[in-house]
Design brief:
binds magnesium ion, binds thymidine-5'-triphosphate, MutS, DNA mismatch repair protein, domain I, elongated, 14 helices
Length: 362
């Protein structure tokens, strides 16, 4: 399976670390968190404790009622962060596009290797080198990869291949649909929607009437469509240039010249790195230090200087109020698509036959 996403979620993370570090806790019901007599709350519980119904965020007082021999263990955050870093070091050897979701969870975009083999290796190395079990899910997008890792826990390994997506989703309770919390779940139940397959078959018109734009998202998720990219947190979200003028400027030609030069500089930069961008923002600081910021989002991703400058000039001339002298002019590109982004590969094909620039303002 190539070009897939792996989701890794550690099992009973804090509790498993405590059981690893303190052999006397192994095989026993333990809860990491505050003590019952201190009105504490549980961060997580070992799988032995979960058999008694003990869960994250439960009050420790309630937990002791459910299991009288429950062992309470105080939180050692530094240790959990240390283990989390160890796990991330392993991830980094398999992908340069990793989106950490929480201390014990991450998405990895696997582009050039076999994702199933990679997932197996990651799981084995976490076991061997860190000493803990992880649940791994592999599929074609983030939503499905996370559903997969959650499907069998602990120590799970679940693959949802493209051809099985619809079948996999259809029997799941509607609560498993991304974004459906207890409130939406109730509303969907009222419409007779209990399983994801009920939503798959439902009249979209009624859903849109009831949920507005959210309905489209829900329908997409029910079909297993999730366009969200794996976002590398340490990748730049935007690139920009700005200049403060020696004296405050009123002459539009000078502003245009400056904008032209900065757009050229930034476009050279994005072309060099093979980035594509979609949003252009102009920032102006006036002589009295007040600011204005205006953006245009293009209808498609681009690295073309002509398109970008056309849009930037349009913002400067038609959107930015040029009523006062300008002290600083800045331009920024955002909505960046990186070369390792699978979406970019598809877009590259259509870049040759560009349509005229359409813009959506914001
Ligand atoms: P989770 O991955 O949600 O839970 P988990 O790893 O303990 O168990 P599972 O096997 O179901 O994945 O959260 C990771 C850690 O984050 C968890 O060990 C403790 C902490 N946490 C809290 O402190 N409070 C909370 O309410 C939750 C949900 C988690
Ligand atoms: Mg976990």
């Amino acid at each position: 399976m190539k070009n897939a996403i792996i989701h890794v979620d550690m099992d009973a993370f804090y509790a498993s670390i405590e059981q690893m570090d303190n052999p006397q806790y192994r095989g026993k019901p333990i809860a990491v968190g505050g003590l019952p007599d201190e009105r504490g709350v549980i961060c997580t519980a070992s799988y032995e404790a979960r058999k008694f119904g003990i869960r994250s965020a439960m009050s420790s007082r309630k937990a002791i009622q459910l299991c009288s021999h429950l062992i309470f263990v105080p939180v050692r955050m530094d240790r959990y962060i240390e283990v989390s870093k160890q796990i991330h070091k392993i991830f980094e050897q398999y992908s340069d596009r990793i989106e950490p979701i929480s201390i014990d969870e991450a998405f990895l975009q696997i582009t050039n290797a076999d994702a199933i083999q990679t997932g197996k290796e990651i799981k084995e190395r976490i076991k061997k080198e860190v000493g803990l079990t992880a649940s791994v899910g592999i599929s074609i997008n983030k939503y499905l990869a996370k559903l997969a890792s959650d499907y069998r826990k602990p120590d799970g390994f679940t693959i949802i291949p493209k051809k099985e997506v619809k079948k996999f989703l259809s029997d799941l309770p509607i609560r498993k649909l991304l974004g459906v919390g207890p409130k939406t779940e109730k509303e969907l139940h009222k419409l007779g929607i209990y399983l994801i397959q009920d939503l798959q078959k439902y009249d979209p018109k009624i859903l849109v009437e009831k949920f507005g734009n959210r309905a489209y998202e829900m329908i997409n998720y029910s079909k297993g469509i999730d366009p969200r990219p794996v976002e590398n947190r340490n990748k730049r979200k935007s690139i920009g240039e700005e200049n403060t003028f020696l004296s405050d400027i009123h002459d539009i030609h000078i502003l245009k010249e400056n904008l032209y030069a900065n757009c050229k500089k930034l476009t050279d930069e994005i072309q060099k790195h093979q980035y594509l961008i979609k949003t252009i923002t102009i920032k102006v600081k006036y002589h009295d230090f007040s600011n204005a910021t205006r953006s245009i989002t293009l209808s498609h991703y681009t690295d073309s200087f002509e398109e970008i400058y056309f849009a930037a000039e349009n913002i400067l001339l038609n959107k930015v109020p040029l009523i006062k002298k300008v002290r600083l002019l800045g331009v920024q590109f955002s909505n960046i698509l990186y070369p390792d982004d699978p979406v970019q590969l598809e877009i590259k094909d259509i870049l040759g036959r560009r349509e005229p620039v359409e813009t959506i303002s914001n």
